[in-house]
Amino acid sequence: MNAQQPITILIAALGGEGGGVVAEWLVDIATRAGHPAQATSIPGVAQRTGATTYYVEIHSQTRVELGGRTPVLSLAPVPGCVDLMVASELLEAVRAIHNGFVSLERTTLLASSQRTLTTFEKLAPGDGRFDSERLLQVAAANCRQLASFDVAATARETGTVPSAVLCGAIAGSGVLPFARVAFEEVIGASGRGVEASLRGFALGFERCGAALGGAPAPTLAAQADLIALGHARVVEFQDAAYGELYRQRVERLREAERRADPQARHGAELAREGARFLALWMAFDDVIRVADLKSRAGRFARVRAEAGAAAGDLLRIADHFKPGVTELAGLLPPSTGQRLLAWEGRRRQAGKAPLGLALKLRADSIFGFLALRLLAGLRPLRRRGQRYAAEQVLIERWLAAVEQAAARDWQAGFELALCARLVKGYGATNERAKDNLRHIVEHLAHKDAADIARARSAALADEAGSGLDQALLQAGAPPRAIKPVPVRWFKAGAR
Amino acid sequence: MEVSFSKEVDQLRLGAGETLHGEGILAITKALLQSGVAYVGGYQGAPVSHLLDVMVQAADYMAELGVHVEACSNEASAAAMLGASIHYPLRGAVTWKSVVGTNVAADALSNLASPGVVGGALIIVGEDYGEGASVIQERSHAFAMKSSLLLLDPRPQLPNMVRMVSHGFALSEACNTPAILQLRVRACHVRGSFECRDNVAPAVSRKALLAEPARFDYEKLAHPPATFRQEKLKTEQRLPAARRYIVEQGLNEIFAGRRNDIGIIVQGGLHNTLVRALQQFNLADAFGAAEFPILALNVTYPLVPQQIADFCRGKRAVLVVEEGQPEYIEQEIATTLRREDHGNTGTAIHGKDLLQMAGEYTVEVVAAGLVKFLARHTADLPLAAAQDWLAANAARRQAVADQLAAPLPPRPPQFCTGCPERPVFSALKLAQANVGPVHVAADIGCHSFATFEPFGFGHTILGYGMSLASRAGVSPMLGRRALAVMGDGGFWHNGLLTGVESALFNKTDAVLLIMKNGYTAATGTQEIISTPDEAQKAGAPDKRLSLVDRNQTIERTLTGLGVSWLRTVPSYEVDAMRRTLEEAFTTGVGGLKVIVAAGECQLERQRRVKPWLAGLLKAGRRVVKVKYGVDADVCSGDHSCIRLSGCPTLTLKDSDDPLKVDPVATVIDGCVGCGLCGENAHAATLCPSFYRVEVVQNPGLAERALAAIRRGFIGMWQPA
What confidence score (pLDDT) does residue A4 get? Predict the structure, then answer.
């Protein structure tokens, strides 16, 4: 490093994480050591949990060495000219890299391995998350050296905030010409929560040292036996006979795959993935299932742990339910259920709000618990209900379509099998998802595998379904029918 | 107020020889006191919010000095406050965010500039331009030119910024002209240090009162015929006086170079950027000593033609580095040189022909312009280092984009965890699902975050408090009613008159939704006239509750003006809000319909709640903490809850269930238990996976006994 050049530090953080505090500490440390230092930031409204950056420059000579000369320090980071890049979140580290700040020759990168998902990533009905493995690879491939560990978890472990841990990591990186004690002195003088800050600092220092140079090992999950799991799920949901039905359906998938791919070149993936979604679908979430899951001992323990309750604390659990006509009809015999649904449909067409009973049920009270167990006890009746019958009809249609498509082309059958992933959610979301699947089964089953795959991805990416309609059109299939919406009002005097 | 400045307030008291360490805006504040300022006002807004916040929090010390501090209702009122300096030898300073604040202040500024001032008048504007800016991108420079105001753009180094404040007052007095001191975003937040001088208590102040008002003087009125003479005074006396002072006091700085055949003229605020750009060519050292001379304009209006001509004399070419468009400075320099010596000065002037026209001048942008400039006018200077660096940056970005294969998701700001405004937009989303889409006139404030995912609401933003006014031409043309969204900050800043009064007067059929959170929250939760007062906060038995209902100023004002359809709905009641919105959209009642969404800013509530709960726990008292959660085995991973909320603590995690491939929803640490998850689950009939959990710490004997009975009973019947 040129003795006359400043040491440059860029900190990427999310609003409210204390990135400004780190910058302030660094300036204090440098100033105490006699170095000219400067920090800037552009918080603005980004302080409301948006992405923001803080930038610090420390001149490498002390004021004494400078003998009265004043260095000109930059207010903004310069691409490729950053010595130390610190990011409290993995995506933000990569954003800084993408913006060109991090240099392969010059920059030491301290990046938290933890992800705070952006709203954008959370919206998709499927999985819209950016691939973390890829982020980490890009981070490792584009800096001089990388130290990556989970800053947020380290802060939680030590009962402090990310800023203290980041400061520890900065000290541990060895990029700045200051001793560890210099950092600790400034943190010690900062006032509130000093002990916790110093604990976080120490662990950040240690973890950064350990992580420097060592590439994080990717974690490989063991392949689970999905068919066995699926069978267990279905039996638990209903009974052994229903489990048997599951086995028969899986056998049909297997048979279809054997014919399409006798050499098992695709590793029996169609049957495996089809069995996965078939199990989830067959064990559909109805009132009975939800009541059962909500009243189990394991669930109570999990809630206690997630709430962070200590041993002597009491817990009150209130569940939000809103059973409506659909849920009730689902439990009634098909003919009665259908009539009830038709009645509700007419009401909705007339512009009336859907009927529903908003409940806040205390699962930990004797009354609430008994109510849940009572509902869970209705399990034997499920098979005779309208919902059960409706789900079986659609499952059979999907299964037959997969068989036909596979007979034509393994890939098409596989893509169609994967389409069962669309079926999820409750109430209107579930209905819309099944409408989408029905439409795909009806109009795309005989099309190219690529068309089916595109339609599925589109349906999983956006709820409104405009992407799906586009994919349908592109495949030469009709777009989904526009649902009639009642005209409810106009402005006074208009029309 | 969001930020506490107790440490900074202490620093304001520092005396001669002591060193102040802190932000640019704090240095400016201290410089005001060192200059004997008598009154201070302004309107908050990034990046200058802290100036006023510090002053307001330092009320005791200000009173000691006799300085008057006023939190003005908008920038126009702040600008009008400077009227005090027209007759009286009072130094006054006001501050706001520019260009938007200057727009609002423009009427008063013109009427101030015309008669001119006898006491120094300084306007400190945060030039919200470039990275991190939150407003339209325009220059404040035009205002200085059209009203003949002085414009200072100091080199962003604390001692120089402080020096320019003190000169700003003196310059303003020397030429009877108000001065604007312009600070870019990063300069406001730059953290450095400078050596202080003693503060000066103003000669005339709240402690040293004037016995009599000034005598009547028609010439001090911005009123004809005085205005005709005043316009001439500006050009014949005031600006020449300003130029004399600028030269005599050396306000603009000339940094000599090793050679004189070319030179650079730069706005003071960009000097550091220019030096760093030159360093990429190895044409400047760490201390700013460059290969060729640099004229740094700490005063960018007026320019001093003689100084410009002198600087350019003998140079083959000069580059003007001027941020933003149009290139006012460059045009004036070109005119100046053209007028010299029949236009035969032999100096080529470059600027926007080589540098990018619009947008922030980063080191890279300036370096790219320098490459073109030097290539054209020097043959002997090595450009390879900078060219390689620029090429490497471009290559690096491309390579990383290729490695990523997909665009990185953006991360705009969003509603805070537990924000009372988020539920209102959840309700609007549901209401529109029932009644069809409506035209939404959006406004400035936290609620404009609803323009981002997962809501995407807002057709236009026409300025602070302008939403209701901005739909006046739209709603008569639409079959459905239009909705105007306004915060209480915008309501008091402007919206009451431009929107409400106008709509009532014109008997317009419109719907106005006011977010009554009690503060101007987006600018740092500053207080307004409808903020619940301190006594109410101190007296509230449960500090978690919203207190905005304790202050009815907005409701009383609306009723007083004649609003008859007025509904107040607590923000978090999603279904009630949905019904109220639907009613407002569909009712046969014409005229203005106002819905007040009442819910106190969560940041302010948490400031009360955290110490309160900590105190209760420390004393061993009973505390109930509320949090929401999602049962992962019930969640099917369709994320419709997130599409209706967007709360930072409602996020995704990998499913523990090996069968499920899609991530499931989860509520992470930081949930403040606002209740939106439960409200949405009910209002939208989402899914039954949400639960509300109350953790009772230090429970009483009776409830412990009851809990034990429940546990015993449930334990007998509960499956694993």
Answer: 74
